[in-house]
Amino acid sequence: MHVVPLIRIEPLPETPEAVQALRSLPEQDLLVLTSANAVRELAARAAALGVALDGLRARVIAVGPATAEAARAAGLAVDALPKRYDAEGLVEALGAGALRGCRVLLPRAERGRDLLPDALRAAGAHTQLVALYRTLPDPVAGARLRDLVARGELDALIFASPSAVRAFADGLDGPTRAAFQRVLVAALGPVTAQALREAGRTPDVVPARAELHALVEALAEAARNAAGRRPGAPGGTS
User: Which of 35, 40, 82, 150 could make an SS bond with 93 (beta carbons 3.0 to 4.6 A apart)?
Assistant: First the structure.
């Protein structure tokens, strides 16, 4: 197994707007957490400003189990997880009717999707975005992974984020793109799956829930099915 981090996290420079947003945490009604990276950056900035995260009056909702785990480690009490672990699931879990007049803080990456903040504002919430970090491709890691794929050394690829997909796909040449079509490809959730389609590769595996254990189970099942279809395999074709 090869673990290849295709992106790196870079904190954004501190701005007066970000400082004001973080100092307003005790007055917020709702804190929406969309990634573990956002939680870690939020915790570091809040600590530097002397803003305690434990005991906040705000409800805290996290996009999924990994984000919730990071939030609890930072001292936040997580009130809810959506049924679907993406922005669409968060919108559904929040419920438009309860958001009118609600003060919401949304810490996130520099270039996040607009679906969630747009939905919050449409529901009447006073939504404040605070960009704390950016994701940057790691060209060395991307080249290494593309080389492994081109040389046929991998049977499957697992992508956990759209940023990772783009960091890999942006450097594909013809032979590597062809090799990419031959390996099993799994996406952790629907947004990552869409990024793969946009890169020209429909994923073979997208678990019903964006959880790592569900992804592993789905990938194992896909691998068994693929092995069964190989010539000479029991039940396969020849």
Answer: 82
